[in-house]
């Protein structure tokens, strides 16, 4: 490892000088080795997503303070999730920086999620911002969402995982009715349904604080100064807590009461028809519509109306030449216009 004087005020240690071999094992257990195209090391006093120092590549013009600094949001090529940052200093433009980055990886490497350009002053400000554990600009694919954890790291979760976690967070009726947690230095969120939260606050006498509903996070957002008031209002009192035993007793009592005094219901005639009778025949009180009424005399039965009885006279009345015949196929009847 090579260490030396500060470069642009940054303490940099070189682990792999240009031309040296860098090797390791990937997540699948496959070993890899690459000849470094540029000096590679890390910036001391910094912390990245992997809870280690932020890595840096030094290009041929690293001592030129007028050149921009490029920060790569490196991702896992398989999952497309943010992995860590790689800094490139001493490259004239973004194309040269990305080429210098890829030259230090095996051919076909797809880990460059986003390449972000900064001035040297902007880069130093970024190192001090506390945002070095999350991507600068890279956004996960739509099927995944990024969530900022309380320790500052970013976690990618699917929509189903988020819904499952919210359900677990909001389904604990003993400790607190709702989960309360900070989302920034100035705001906190109460997870749960907005109507249910506001109703609980109103019942506790807190009627002026409505909160702002955040659909993505699944709860109401309040200013941090009201956290103590909201927390106290949403925390059930000791005499309001219901243990499992008392809940079972109430349910058992309700069941016993319903068995002792069953609700009266209208009795439906359950008498079975005589043996051999048609169970699906209409009853004595049935009055059918006209089409359902059966005519016993063949002479009085109405003659059915057929399509050709209507269409043929109609077409002839219009003086339209036609041909009557059957189309090929069972039970098909067609009418053909004869061209003049």
Give structural attributes.
seven-stranded mixed beta sheet; alpha+beta; single chain; 7 helices; four-stranded antiparallel beta sheet
What features would you describe in this structure?
The protein has 340 residues and is of the alpha+beta class. It is built from seven helices and 17 strands. It has helices at 94-102, 120-127, 159-170, 194-203, 227-234, 244-260, 307-317, and strands spanning 2-3, 12-16, 21-25, 31-35, 39-43, 54-58, 69-75, 82-89, 112-118, 144-148, 154-158, 179-182, 187-191, 212-214, 219-223, 322-325, 334-337. The strands form five sheets. It has a seven-stranded mixed sheet with strand order 1-2-5-6-8-7-9. A four-stranded antiparallel sheet has the order 12-13-15-14. It has a two-stranded antiparallel ribbon with strand order 3-4. β16 and β17 (334-337) form a beta hairpin. It starts with a strand and ends with a strand.
Rg for CA atoms: 39 Å
Largest sheet: spatial strand order: 1-2-5-6-8-7-9
Instruction: State the end-to-end distance.
Output: 100 Å
Order of helices and strands: EEEEEEEEHEHEEHEEHEEHHHEE
* Total count of strands: 17
Oligomer: single chain
Relative strand content: 15-25%
Low-confidence stretches: 170-176, 238-245, 265-270
| Structural class based on helices, strands and sheet pairing | alpha+beta
In short:
The protein is α+β, with helices and mostly antiparallel strands and 340 residues long. The chain contains seven helices and 17 strands.
């Amino acid at each position: 490892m090579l260490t030396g004087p500060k470069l642009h005020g940054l303490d940099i240690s070189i682990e792999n000088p240009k031309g040296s071999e860098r090797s390791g094992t990937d997540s699948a257990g496959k070993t890899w080795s690459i000849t470094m195209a540029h000096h590679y090391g890390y910036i001391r006093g910094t912390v990245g997503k992997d809870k280690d120092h932020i890595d840096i590549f030094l290009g041929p013009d690293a001592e030129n303070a007028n050149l921009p600094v490029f920060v790569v949001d490196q991702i896992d090529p398989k999952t497309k999730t943010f992995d860590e940052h790689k800094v490139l200093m001493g490259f004239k433009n973004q194309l040269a920086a990305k080429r210098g980055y890829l030259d230090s990886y095996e051919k076909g490497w797809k880990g460059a999620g986003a390449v972000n350009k900064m001035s040297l002053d902007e880069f130093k400000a970024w190192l001090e911002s506390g945002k070095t554990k999350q991507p600068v600009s890279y956004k996960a694919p739509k099927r995944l969402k990024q969530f900022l954890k309380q320790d500052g790291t970013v976690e990618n979760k699917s929509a189903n995982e988020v819904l499952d976690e919210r359900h677990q967070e909001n389904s604990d009726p003993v400790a607190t009715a709702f989960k309360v947690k900070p989302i920034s230095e100035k705001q906190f969120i109460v997870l749960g349904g907005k109507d249910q939260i506001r109703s609980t606050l109103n019942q506790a006498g807190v009627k002026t604080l409505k909160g702002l509903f955040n659909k993505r996070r699944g709860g109401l957002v309040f200013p941090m100064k009201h956290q103590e008031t909201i927390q106290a209002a949403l925390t059930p009192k000791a005499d309001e807590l219901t243990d499992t035993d008392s809940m079972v007793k109430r349910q058992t009592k309700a069941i016993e009461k319903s068995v002792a005094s069953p609700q009266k219901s209208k009795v439906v005639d359950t008498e079975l028809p005589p043996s051999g009778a048609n169970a699906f025949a209409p009853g004595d009180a049935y009055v059918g519509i006209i089409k359902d009424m059966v005519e016993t005399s063949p002479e009085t039965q109405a003659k059915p109306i057929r399509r050709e009885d209507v269409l043929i006279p109609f077409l002839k009345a219009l003086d339209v030449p036609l041909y009557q015949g059957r189309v090929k196929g069972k039970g098909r009847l067609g009418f053909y216009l004869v061209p003049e």
